[in-house]
Amino acid sequence: MPRSPFALLLALLIGCASPIAAQSAATGNQITVLYDAFSDKPGLALDWGYAALVEFEGKRILFDTGNDAAMFETNIKRLRVDLSKIDLVVLSHRHGDHTSGLRYVLSVNPKVPVYVPSDETFMQSTPTGFFAPAVEDPSLPAKMRYFGGTPPTPSPAHGTAWPAARFRVVTKLTDITPHIHLISTLSGTPGFRDMSEVSLILDTPKGPVVIVGCSHPGVENILANVAAQTHTSSIFELVGGLHLVVSTPSQIDHTVSALLDTYHVHRTALGHCTGEKTFAILQKRLGENYRYAGVGEVLGL
């Protein structure tokens, strides 16, 4: 039976698609960059910050939410992303250029679970230990005691910009599905010491894809944690920000060597705070395995 003109056109389009694009269309596994400071697509808001929609094995995960809720909303609408249908949100860390769009997300999908690092920013109650000192001085008058010496039970709510958010704290390797995991790495980096950062791991047939927000603990430390927790010796793809934007050439060279030689990163799709110097170096080193990841880009997995 002769095929209809529509069927012929569809076959032609699929035949012209790249193998990766065709595979992405078949599996639905892809990452769409929603927020960053560069793009080759008109009509999208550009700003310092990061957000991406990760679609993998039937799950739709919003990873970070950008720096400005209004700009984030603009890109969401122009890219026709339906936030009411996402399954979960991951906030990599507390900084505003990754969390500000959460207000808009919750206005559309108020019950969505939000996975966050163990950080005071996302706490929903004040630690009870604050009101139970190890050694009490009975001479301290009640007017100098917290709550007059009788603190409320349960502990007072901790102030937050998102009082209705359903936060779920990530403190260890957390399985979302058998092939989707979250991992938290504690930073020892000066300026960001003791700040936890959550990364997303996707188990693909080609190897793990690791999605990072800013890599404040150092991307080498994050990947070392991934390797130790998941018992993997190589990373297929690294996506997101590496926080090398103000690093020296020697620091960048050291990190690039660690990525390629120690963790055997095969492919990258980097953005945000990675820095233009690192973009240029990795593009030369990886060739076609360096994937452009500007706002609006859809990256097949």
Defining key terms:
single chain; 8 helices; 26% helix; Metallo-beta-lactamase, Chain A; 7-stranded mixed beta sheet; alpha/beta
Provide a descriptive summary of the structure in words:
With 301 residues, the protein is α/β, with parallel strands linked by helices. It has a single domain, classed as Ribonuclease Z/Hydroxyacylglutathione hydrolase-like (Metallo-beta-lactamase, Chain A, 4-Layer Sandwich), CATH 3.60.15. It has 8 helices and 13 strands. The chain has helices at 5-16, 19-27, 69-78, 96-99, 102-108, 219-230, 249-262, 276-286, and strands spanning 30-35, 51-56, 59-63, 88-90, 113-117, 166-170, 174-177, 180-186, 196-204, 207-212, 237-240, 267-270, 298-300. The strands form 2 sheets. It has a 7-stranded mixed β-sheet with strand order 6-5-4-3-2-1-13. A 6-stranded mixed β-sheet has the order 7-8-9-10-11-12. The chain is globular, with a radius of gyration of 22 Å. The two termini are 35 Å apart.
What is the gist of this entry?
Residues 5-25 have low confidence and may be disordered. With 301 residues, the protein is α/β, with parallel strands linked by helices.
Would you spell out the secondary-structure blueprint of this structure?
Blueprint: H1 5-16, H2 19-27, E1 30-35, E2 51-56, E3 59-63, H3 69-78, E4 88-90, H4 96-99, H5 102-108, E5 113-117, E6 166-170, E7 174-177, E8 180-186, E9 196-204, E10 207-212, H6 219-230, E11 237-240, H7 249-262, E12 267-270, H8 276-286, E13 298-300
